[in-house]
Amino acid sequence: MKVHKIMEQTELTEQLEKIRGKLIAIEQPRPNRLYLSCESENSREIVKFLFEDVGARFCVATAIDADHCFEVLYHFSYDRTGCVISVKAFIRDRNKPSIESVSHFLPAAEWIEREIHDTFGIEFRNHPDMRRLILADDWPQGVYPMRKEGTK
Amino acid sequence: MSDVLNSLFWILIFPGFVFTAVVGLIASWVVRKTSAAVQWRVGPPFFQPFFDIAKLMGKETLVPEDAQKTIFAMAPVVGLAGITLLSTMLWRGAIWQTDFVGDIIVAIYLMVLPSLALILGSSASASPHASIGTSREMKLVIGYELPLVMAFVVVVIKTGGQLGLAAIGKSAPVLSVSGMLAFLVSLFCIQAKLGFVPFDVAEAETEIGGGVLMEYSGTLLALWKIMQVMMLAALPLFLVAVFMGGFGGSGLSLVWGVCKYVLILVLIILIKNTNPRVRIDQAMKFFWVYCGLTSALAVILAVAGNSYGIGWL
Amino acid sequence: MSWKIKALKKSPWVFHVNTGACNNCDIEIVDLLTPRFDVERFGIKLVGSPRHADALLVTGVVTAQAVKRLEEVYKQTPKPCVVFAIGACACQTGIMYGGYHVAGPVDKIIRQIDPGAIIAYVPGCPPKPEAIISGVVKVLSAL
User: Fold this and answer.
1) How many domains does chain C have?
2) Within an 8 Å CB–CB cutoff, is residue A139 touching chain C?
3) Which range marks the domain in which residue A82 is found?
4) Residue A43: inside a domain
5) What is the CATH number of the domain that holds A50?
6) Size of interface A-C (CB pairs under 8 A)
7) pLDDT above 70 (res B206)
8) Which pLDDT does position B91 carry in this prediction?
9) By CB distance 3.0 to 4.6 Å, which of A62, A99, B271, B292 could disulfide with A40?
């Protein structure tokens, strides 16, 4: 059993070599946890590679407001070894944060990107249906509650 | 003059409106208490249905802005009128043995009135939930009316063409093959008419809010509830009168008649507690295919039995 | 005491409203209505429409989106009626205090449209079904 898992883990590492050029760093704090950091321009290609070529399963997308930049994370699960892969995309421009939407080949990301847009104000380029999702109908436009400055 | 007063007394007090309502409320308590016993619970106290009606009378009556107010208010009254007349006729025919030719036809006609009133009232409600309930109730009525009427045709054939209730009540058609089939079919149709599980799709509480009765509140809702309990008193009585040989005049045969009514109530409770709710298309298929074919078979057997003189068919 | 209140105490029909809860309190309310706790002894019945209800079981801190909806449901419940705030979030916003989407606890929203409303509080996170039954019975006997 364990030999099988190790074989598939090395297979995963080999496949990741293919997109090494697009990444800033690969971190592996634990055997079954991988963080792939990249700039926001390359996030779509890396996500497409993970979803289609590696065959990982998309779990959820999250975002955080690190003071000097925004980060959008896409979390995948490589089910054959139980490894969770997170793609960490840095968005350097704090005034007009923008990243390419992945919902064209990943329909499950459509609503999650709407939620991130509602709460952080990050624009997802080429999103098919960017409407308000979780904030109230009478919530003022332009106020993004999860940013560091909050609702002020 | 005293004739008119007599009739008013019969229709409004005894054995009409008040008497049937009280009997119906007691019967609905029996249903709830038995269902509780089946589920190993305690169940409501004896006067619970009376408290329910009293409480509903004390609440304010809200009418939706867009509703057709006249039909909205008149629908429960129409239903109540139908069921009051039906129960007066049934009690008088069953106990006093007074009837007239064409009894059973009038009874079938009056039995449809409460369902029609429900459809009218809910379509006047101007609510999307109520309109779903309306369409389901209409489909249900289309489903069960035909097998029900055919079951009563079996009874008419078996008693040699008698149409008066007291005359039908002299024999017990249930003790023959076609009569038993017709009785089973009409039992399921009564279950649907009363709006009990498994056929309570029209008033499906967890699915479509209140369904047909969604927008009703206060006094109007109390009128609907009274109509429903009166149906619980009158419809099994109709089955007893038509299939099982009716009530007697007094004494032992009266007690025997009450036992027969309780038997049908027990059957209804049994079906209610052992089945989940069915979808409307499953209900229609059940009534048209299974009940329809069974009652058609019963009609054929009854005609064959009559013409060849075989009594038990 | 008028006969209306007397009859109300004997047969309170409940309607469940979720104004943005985490669903824990809702699960406890659904548990409450199962045969194990047998609330039919008190005449309590779950109804599908607020127009049939005498008691509103409100769970959840009232989110900004739910304010209008809760007001509509309250207006559609024929008076006299009782509002039960079930759970810590409904009683005084609990863990959600100061959140960006929180419009206030249930009593603040209800008193805006009806200052004389009867509101009962059943705290807990979530309150056990026994606690909810005890709350309902206490309120009904105090009416």
Assistant:
1) 1
2) yes
3) 23-125
4) yes
5) 3.30.460.80
6) 14
7) no
8) 82
9) A99
CB contact under 8 A, B206 and C7: no
- With 90 as the cut, is the pLDDT of residue C99 above it? no
- What's the maximum distance between 2 C-alpha atoms anywhere in chain C? 45
In a domain, C142, yes or no: no
User: Residue C11 is nearest to which of B43, B55, B62, comparing CB atoms?
Assistant: B55
Rounded Cα gap, residues B238 and B261, in angstroms = 9
Mean pLDDT of chain B: 87
- Over the stretch B130-158, which tens digit does the pLDDT of each residue have? 888 889 889 999 999 999 999 988 888 88
Position with higher pLDDT, C51 vs B207: C51
Chains A and B physically touch (3 or more Cβ atom pairs below 8 Å): no
DSSP per-residue codes, chain A = -HHHHHHHHHHHHHHHHTTGGG-SEEEEEETTEEEEEEEGGGHHHHHHIIIIII-PEEEEEEEEEETTEEEEEEEEEETTTTEEEEEEEEE--SSS-EEE--TTT-TTHHHHHHHHHHHH--EEET-S-----SS-TTSPTT--TTSTTTT-
- How big is chain C by its Cα radius of gyration, in Å? 14
Alpha-carbon distance of C9 to B209, in angstroms, equals 24
CB-nearest to B217 from C7, C38, C78 is C78
Residue B312 has pLDDT above 90, yes or no: no
Confidence of residue B100 (pLDDT cuts 50, 70, 90): low
Confidence of residue C1 (pLDDT cuts 50, 70, 90): low
- Mean of pLDDT values over A44-64: 91
Q: What pLDDT was estimated at residue B291? A: 92
Asked whether the beta carbons of residue A136 and residue C101 sit closer than 8 angstroms, the reply is yes
Residue A17 lies in a domain: no
- Degrees, nearest 5: CA angle C4-C8-C11: 140
Q: Which residues of C touch B208 (CB under 8 A)?
A: 48
pLDDT in tens, B80-89: 999 998 888 8
Does C52 contact B217 at a Cβ distance shorter than 8 Å?
yes
Query: Within a domain: residue C26?
Result: yes
Average pLDDT estimate for B22-51: 92
Residue A11: inside a domain, yes or no? no
Q: Work out the minimum CA distance from A135 to partner chain C, whole angstroms.
A: 7
ipTM for this prediction = 0.89
Binding-site residues on chain B for chain C (CB distance < 8 A): 32, 36, 39-45, 47-48, 51-52, 54-55, 57-62, 129, 204-206, 208-211, 213-218, 221
Does C73 map to a domain? Answer: yes
Structural domain includes residue C47: yes
Task: Look at B214 and C51 and tell me if their CB atoms are within 8 Å.
Answer: yes
Determine which of A115, A138, A149 to mutate to test the interface with C (most C C-beta atoms within 10 Å).
Answer: A138
Give me the pLDDT at residue B99, please.
Answer: 63
Rounded to the nearest 5°, which phi and psi values hold at B190?
-65, -40
